[in-house]
Amino acid sequence: MRSPVDVLTGTALLGLSVAIGFLMRSFPGGTLEQGMGPAFVPGILAVTLAILSVLLILKGLFFGRGDEEEGLNTFSFDDARSLLRPGALCVFVLLYILLLPRVGYVLSTVLFLLAVSLLLRARGFVAVAIAVGLTAGIYLVFEVGLSVPLPTGSFFQG
Amino acid sequence: MDGAGFFELYTAGLANTLRAEVLLFSLIGTATGLVFGTIPGLSATIGVAILTPLTFSMGTEASFALLLGVYAGATYGGSISAILVNVPGTMGAMMTSLDGYPLTKKGEAGRAIGLATTSSFIGGALSVVALAFLAPPIAAFAIRMSAQEYFAVCLFGISVIAYISGPSLLKGCISAVIGLLLATIGLDPTTGYIRFTFGSTELLGGLNMIALMVGMFGLAEVLRLVENEAGEMRKAASVSRVLPSLREFWKLRFTLFRGSLLGVFIGAVPATGGAIASIISYGLEKRISRHPETFGKGEYRGIAGPESANNAATGGSMIPMMTLGIPGDIVTAILIGALILHGLRPGPILFRDNPEIVSSIFLLLMISNLMFLFLGLLGARYFAKLITLPRYFLTAIILSLAIVGTYAIGNSLFDVWVLLLGGIGGYVLAKAGLPVAPLILGFTLGPLLESYLRQALILSYGNPLEFISRPISATFIALTLLVLLSPYILQLHGRRRKSGSVES
Fold first, then answer.
1. Against a cut of 0.80, is the pTM above it?
2. The complex's ipTM?
3. Interchain CB distance below 8 Å, A56 and B219
């Protein structure tokens, strides 16, 4: 096959369009005079996606990428290592969101920013400074300045 | 429109706009925009996406002072790093590095920056004038448009961006369809039927547009930034402050005029923006020049043209955005979100019911252009130092602002989840070669497209032929088909030519 990424993407999207079709099996269809029902547009889109996915799979199998597509920042399975840092960052954000309602904005953000800065090779002292400084700044601007309530954390509430 | 109404559009907002608080936000916005523009990897899109949720509790004029400042400032700011270190800060500055960097190597960095700054200002200012004169009549005409026309124009816009966003029209269309599908999540406005919410109450209103945008542009871009080993950029060359002489400017007047005109028109086409305008301008200037060999070696026209075109697209893109509610580029798509955040809806109704907001927007965009002229001429070399900032610092700021801003819109952690998923989604899609712009535009225009489509059917008693029998609607549908079929038409044309030349 000429482009495994395209075949993979196409297959995933084809699966998605089938799943969508399944999810909307009980949506009413409606009539033309009534402007059609809720199934109309998603249905057209799902079918279109399915067709386009098949085209993408075919492209990935037989035609490969055109000259213009070479050199795009797309994935080749050899540079899987470059996914490590972005992956770690996503995990940090996920943990951050989970922490927010439990320990409140200030503590969560300090921990999050510390983790991010250290991941990106900031020296320990600088990382702490950034984490504390930014959190303090945001807190001041939002809670105090704009009166926007930030999460307080169930852990600290009586 | 009667005489009183006409001038109202320009003056009604004066009192609200020329207040210290509003002007301060314009300055902050423009400076922030300059920062985002100068730093490669950041752009107007990310800046506006991240700041929009933060404007939630601000007044409308102050919010737009900030956001329009970022828009204008960032669009210009990309030229600074393009000229000094040959790395464009934004896509619209790509052409500027071609002749800007050679000037830096010759020791004329200051002149190049002065030229870029002034050209950007001229393009931007002229585009605001164009916006102010073209938008009201278009808005007045738009009232006569019915659902069929709106549908057709939106469809055309999506097809254009699917075509332009990347080398593969197929992938552009796939992205657009995914965006349109995401827009169907939630309550169907026409029938009240609940679609794809999996029982979640937060999803009844659909995915939060700003959360999705901040995720797909802000977080995804950060994920891309951290892929490789963190490093500082090269040191920027020192800049002495020299402006090109007035005589040199006079010689460039036609280039500047051409660039500005190009920028306004290309910006006005839904979904196309400054980057494309600057590329076309550069190509045009080179082709009509009597000495094309000077391009790429420090030719002033190679800077004046693209820079004026790039910034002229800002005003141009706002024309369809304000008059029809159809974004002229990605940033204006986000600005539509900002208007909605403040309880306003773009389109002819805005011109009729809120002329003071319309005039404020015209004024603020002009003020932003003046601000970056001022900031750029005086302080470009200070902004240039930003190029040396370490990556962890930038990442920390962007992430913390993006998350707190998104949370603040609706006090909702759910929106932050949308941000995370949007970021992962945007990152993965980019890896698959699927462009993000059509997705976001599909998502923004999706609800509009669906309701116009169904409204049109109701209004025409179920007659789908109305789309083709009405002239304006038919025109745009024909244009859409033209765009979607153009790769094949071009291929056929190429083949015929080839076989023709072989035979003769």
1. yes
2. 0.90
3. no
